[in-house]
Amino acid sequence: MAVPNRSLGPHGRAACLAALAVLPLALGAVATVFLGAWPVLPFAGLEVAVLAYAFHRIACHDGDYERLEIAGPRVRIEARSGARVVSFEGHAPWARLVVRDRPGRCELQLRYAGKSVDIGRMLTDERRRLWAAELGRRMPVTEQGR
Fold this sequence. Notes:
The protein is α+β, with helices and mostly antiparallel strands. 40% of the residues lie in helices and 32% in strands.
């Protein structure tokens, strides 16, 4: 199972956002009170709001995961990205792993019965290549883009 690598948990992100918000808001308040430059304060608030939105978007993907199971003749993929959950199941001997290995970018897909799903999105390109080699020993592989 693959999950996103997060250096900060929810509490750490909240503390980081608070620490980053203090300086622009404080400078905006000082500019407003002591210099009469009141237009600075709304822009400082906008800066903090955009930063809070970015932190919120990151938090929306905290529960992301990707799981691939090959058990006997069945292959099953379950993945979550934000609110979107994808489930894909097929007969392993008939499923195909599609590897698109281009300079600087490796993409993997699993195809079965006219459907395809991207896999390995949370891995680095090098880890995708290693995973493709490992999966290639367990199912047929189609390589594209070399």
